[in-house]
Amino acid sequence: MEQAAESLKGKKVLVVRLSALGDVVQTLPAVERLAAAGATVDWLTQPAYAALARCCPLVRRVLEFPRRHFFRRAAACARALRQEHYDLALDLQGLLKSALGARAARAATPRWNSGSSRASGGVARRAPLCLRPSAISTRGSAATPTASRSTWN
Predict the structure, then answer these.
(1) Which of 27-31, 56-60, 101-105, 108-112 has the lowest mean pLDDT?
(2) Distances (CA, A) of 28 to 34, 43, 144
(3) Distance CA 106, CA 144 (A)
(4) Would you kindly state where each structural domain of the chain is located, as residue ranges?
(5) What's the predicted TM-score (pTM) here?
(6) Of the candidates 128, 123, 115, 151, the residue with the CA atom closest to the CA atom of residue 13
(7) Which of 36, 54, 90, 145 is the most exposed place for a label (fewest CB within 10 A)?
(8) Burial code of 17-26, b = ≥16 C-beta within 10 A, e = fewer?
(9) Which residues pair with residue 145 across a beta bridge?
(10) How far apart are alpha carbons 108 and 90 in whole angstroms?
(11) Which residues, 6 or more positions from 79, have their beta carbon under 8 angstroms from its beta carbon?
(12) pLDDT tens, 121-136?
């Protein structure tokens, strides 16, 4: 765990989780772990969920992935992503549209098999230590992960 935290210290990380309210909420523990490891975290999401992402004080900047008028707005979104010079882009959605957002950032984009049928790649690499389920305690149901220690109200 310490080795993974050390490798993220001072890095700019883009978290890509675009849609579905439940998916966005379930991404919060991963954002908390990344921030605890010393990473600067930005979040790419759809406009409908941007306000929720902005409620998390651990997120430095929330970028909106265009859902409507995609072809007119995609270039501006890609430019904004490239200007940030991210060290790492984590596609936590595993769909084509989230992969497009992660690749537009022109950052390293690790791929791992998350066990989901929609997981992109299916590569036999494991997720970074700070994002593995063992690094996040679950209270109650395994479907509702919560960080072991909350750092925000």
Answers:
(1) 108-112
(2) 10, 10, 11
(3) 31
(4) 2-135
(5) 0.68
(6) 128
(7) 54
(8) bbbeeeebeb
(9) 138
(10) 9
(11) none
(12) 433 344 544 555 444 4
User: What is the average pLDDT value for the chain, to the nearest integer?
Assistant: 74
Q: Give ∠ CA 29-53-72 in degrees, rounded to 5.
A: 130
Question: What architecture is domain 2-135?
Answer: 3-Layer(aba) Sandwich (3.40)
Three-class DSSP category at 87: coil
Amino acid at 108: A
Q: Which tokens go with 48?
A: 């409908």
Q: Alpha-carbon distance 19 to 121, whole Å?
A: 20
Q: What is the pLDDT of residues 36-74, one digit of tens each?
A: 999 999 999 999 999 999 999 999 999 998 877 777 778
What's the rounded Cα separation, in Å, for the pair 41 and 15? Answer: 7
For residue 139, how many other CB atoms are within 10 A of its CB? 9
- Residue 105 CA to residue 33 CA, distance in Å, equals 21
